Amino acid sequence: MPSPRSPLSRLFTVLLAGALAGLVLAVAALPGGLLGGQVAKAALGAYAELPDALRTPAQPQRSYLYANDGKTLITTFYDVNRTDVPLAEIAPVMRQAIVSAEDRRFYSHGGADLRGIARALVANLRGGGTEQGGSTLTMQYVRNVLKTDPTRTAEERQAATEQTVGRKIQEIRYAAALEKTLSKDEILNRYLNIAYFGSGAYGVAAAGQRYFGKAPADLTLGEAALLAGLVQSPDEYSPIDGDKARALERRAYVLDAMAETGAISAAQAAAAKAEKLTLHPTAQPNGCTAVAQGHADWGFFCAYLRQWWLTQPAFGNTVKEREQALRRGGYTVVTSLDPKVQQTAQQQATGVYGYDNKRALPIAAVEPGTGRVLAMAVNRHYSLDENPAGQANHPNTVNPLISGGDSVDGYQAGSTFKLFTMLAALEAGKPLSTGFDAPSKLPTRYAAEGEGTCDGKWCPANANPAWMDGYRMMWDGFGRSVNTYFVWLAEQVGPAKAVEMAQRLGIRFRAESDAAFAKDDAENWGAFTLGVAATTPLDLANAYATVAAEGTYCTPLPVVSVTAANGAKVAVGQPSCKKVLDTDVARAATDAARCPVGQQSAYGQCNGGTATSVDRIVGRPVAGKTGSSEQNATETFVGFTPQVAVAGIAANPDDSTDLVGSPVQAKVIDAVARVIKTAVGGQPVKDFTAPSRELAGDPQRPKPQPTPRPHQPRQEQDRGLPSDLLRWLQNRRG
Question: Would you indicate the residue range of the signal peptide (predicted)?
Fold first, then answer.
């Protein structure tokens, strides 16, 4: 039953009928030639007044995020579920259905169908049925644009649907102006891309997906007729959210109209009417918590991309404008996420710790020379779902455990920070052959109190004296992770140089205590070389990627390309890189970094490593470094080839006092190595370039080398700090 009209609605109809009837009669009384001239003149005048939105539509559209293959959908972002498609990609029956249902004289009128207006006026005055507005497709398009234009104020958008004679006359003038400047097919295409079809779907592309899981080119006659029938009252007729029976009635009406106009035969109409309504409702994902089914781990990368997007001036002057651009701008974003690398990283992270484990293994993979982020994995579901009682961030969380930010400062990465001291020393002119007779304990110049000090001075120690003590150079000092050698080396160049080097390579100090040390007391931060500052797998991987790229630092980048709705490329997909290290310095550091992973330096100076299994797993030139923080609270490994750098840190993100323990170090090493293997799979084998003889120096060893104790696995040799320094560090860090 049609809904009864209110007295006010009927009164408005009568008033509007009178006004428009007068307009119709006045226009009809004009001589034909004069009529054409006046309409043309009025149309041109109206075109000069057209809002920009009608000249160049700026309608909200959904943005798509794809993996680096440009095909694998990660998710979409939208306020309005809408995507433009060209007319050629819309089934002909869909075009015919909408014209037959809404504006049979579309191809013959000039924007305002005076006959249609008069017919609607008569029908409305008679009452007893649904009110008719007599609006053409062009007039409906004008109304839809003005009421949804994101550049207009809320008041202006509301005014586009006001029930006033002035608004209707303006709508007619705008429609006539558009008809003078756009082809009928262009107007039809624009209409089909903006019309609301109910259930949150704007435009025929979104509607085809929402109701039938189809592209608009694949719609059948019956499906097209059903969609065309929805636009008159989309919320009421929607077969998903409204009345399925009414939707079928409207489908039948459209099919009959198509037969009457000759678009289809009566037999075709009857056959389509007899078809059972078969829906395949498809909800488009919206945002990072709605990533592709079965890939909840992609949400962490998605969130990182979104944070990056909000910093890019290309998408707006403010964060709010950039957020609006992502959700309404219709961008196609090809991200840097590599599905294969991501899958391996996720498998490895969850293989070490399950989703329900309070401990985590966040892993990041970065491409040297571009900074493109290939994978971000952790044993957590990216989800807002509640966790069981007592479980803060597992199995569900949206915290940036891999990239840092918000409340996540990062995790201590232990001896991986020795790289920054080595680079600072090499840059200062000290060659790889710089030797020192490393003792078990080393009294330093840094004042300290309490247990583990030597005459009031900080006194770091080697975790395994039998394997670490003795005459060391940078090669085996790095390979065996000799604490006293690197603390001594840091004293030679100054800890501030190592701190500055870390910052130069992209290490950010998110913890307040670390930032304070770096800013105010870096020269006295003796323990920095042993990795007491918090960092993240992404920062660490990118720092080592800088060395892999022979000294070229690239800002981490989560995209390959961004294309606007109009097909134009946005200038944000190119790497932002700069030279921060001398090439030979980077090559020298890489040569020493061959030692920890069980490979040999170009000068044959590796004699033991803390991660020798990596050579066997990766099976090509590789370098890297392990790191164990105080009392094995965290265990870290970062490895790299010329084509990829990967870092993983085992930690408890919610409780730094929960010690992951030394046994997990071998698993972390194995996990990172297997991610590297996947990342370089199918790529040509590339070797590292040897450093110059000048920076290698003269590797003379005046003393015989101690051998490792056979009962202690090499993967467990690396200890960032001995336990007797815990109290001093706690006091020192405040």
Answer: none
Q: Please compute Rg for the chain using Cα positions.
A: 35
The residues that bridge with 381 in the sheet, in sequence order, are 396
DSSP 195-248: -B-STTEESHHHHHHHHHS--GGG--HHHHHHHHHHTTSHHHH-TTTS-HHHHH
Query: If DSSP codes are grouped into helix, strand and coil, which group holds residue 377?
Result: strand
Amino acid at 29: A
Three-class SS string for 432-497?
Answer: CCCCEEECCECCCCCECCCCCEECCEECCECCCHHHHCEEECHHHHHHCCCHHHHHHHHHHHCHHH
Nearest C-alpha neighbor of 151 from the set 333, 321, 331: 321
Mean pLDDT of 507-518: 95
Beta bridge partners of 461: 441
CB burial class (10 A; 0-12, 13-18, 19+) of residue 463? buried
Residue 639, classed as helix, strand or coil, is strand
Angle 495-504/512-520 helices, nearest 10 degrees?
120
Cα 446–chain centre separation: 44
**How does pLDDT run across 457-498, given as a tens digit for each residue?**
889 999 899 999 999 999 999 999 999 999 999 999 999 999
